[in-house]
Design goal:
alpha/beta, globular
């Protein structure tokens, strides 16, 4: 690594040694023993500016404290039927590992509807997925492959993406903002597959707005992307929608259970882990129902510009009739 980068890491490390409680404890939950890797992530996210990376990390730590993120894995969404409904409409699953050991996550972007619960539940579920990845999945992958693994791969399925996607922009912007500001540089590569025309049209106008660092992470593959993905992962780790050309309707290879399903081992393990953590946190009384209200940081100028550009492009494609009404209906509401 360049001398300048090493100096930046050293300066950043000295600043973080000055933390006091409760920031010190929540920082330990963030770096999980990999202090250097965490500092590098935040430095990369701020183009190696130590002051900017320091501010970003302090903002992240304060956000965690203010919103109880350290204990979010002890707050399972109940009843389990509600969690099942969220799994059915926020399509995310862990399908395996790359040849280099990174966990492979599948995202059904085009078919996610976000219509079975309040916005708070979806944000809570997404943050729980992030925390489980950082505290359980990545450490387990590091142990399994005998080396430090800090990032994952994401395969984004655009099957079913329609012009009505405008109604999901606000939700997706919220989730993206949470990730960008509090979980930076956790994804090495985003693979876009099964992209319909509406995605291609939006991608054409959004791509120039992205930072070079972000552009390099995104690969738009032809069709299901199977052949390209097999260069970085084995067939068993392919998401079900990549195992054949065409739409993503076939089942995952694991016992015929769709990787998004509540019945898939990944979601079962995650949910059981959260239930166990909740018992450790509070052994008195049943788990309370109710979503975790997390303050979503304001999106940066880049995210705002991207959302506005996508909105504008979708208006053009559809003629702009009646779309703002559906967009404005998506608000942050309680359960």
């Amino acid at each position: 690594m360049a001398v300048a980068s090493e100096e930046a890491i050293k300066q950043f490390s000295v600043l973080m040694e000055q933390l006091e409680e409760p920031l010190k404890t929540t920082f330990q939950n963030v770096h999980q023993g990999n202090l250097r890797g965490t500092l590098v992530r935040f430095l990369k996210a701020r183009e190696w500016s130590v002051p900017k990376a320091h501010k970003m990390l302090l903002d992240c730590l304060n956000w965690r404290i203010q919103n109880g993120i350290d204990s979010v894995l002890a707050k399972p969404i109940v009843p389990s039927d509600l969690y099942r409904a969220i799994c059915d409409t926020l399509l995310v699953g862990l399908t395996g590992y790359s040849k280099q050991g990174q966990p492979v996550y599948a995202f059904g972007v085009g078919l996610s509807t976000f219509d079975k619960a309040s916005v708070n539940y979806y944000v809570q579920s997404h943050i729980q997925m992030n925390e489980y990845r950082d505290r359980v999945v990545l450490p387990a992958a590091s142990k399994k492959f005998g080396r430090q693994i800090n990032t994952c791969l994401k395969v984004m399925d655009m099957t079913g993406l329609k012009l009505s996607a405008l109604s999901q922009i606000k939700m997706l912007t919220m989730i993206t903002t949470v990730d960008d500001l509090n979980y930076p540089e956790k994804t090495e590569t985003y693979y876009i597959v099964n992209a319909p025309y509406v995605f291609s049209a939006c991608w054409k106008v959004v791509k120039p707005l992205l930072q070079e660092r972000t552009k390099k992470k995104i690969q738009v593959l032809y069709g299901s992307g199977r052949d390209e993905l097999l260069k970085v992962m084995d067939y068993e780790s392919l998401p079900h929608f990549c195992k054949r050309e065409g739409s993503g309707s076939s089942s995952d290879s694991l016992d015929g259970v769709d990787c998004y399903s509540y019945d898939h081992p990944f979601h079962q393990q995650l949910y059981n882990y959260m239930k166990q953590q909740s018992l450790k946190l509070d052994s008195v009384g049943p788990i309370k129902q109710g979503s975790l209200h997390v303050d979503v940081p304001s999106p940066g100028l880049e995210e705002v510009k991207i959302a506005e550009t996508i909105e504008s492009e979708l208006h053009k494609l559809r003629g702009g009739n009646g779309l703002m009404h559906s967009f404005n209906r998506i608000k942050i509401e309680g359960p």
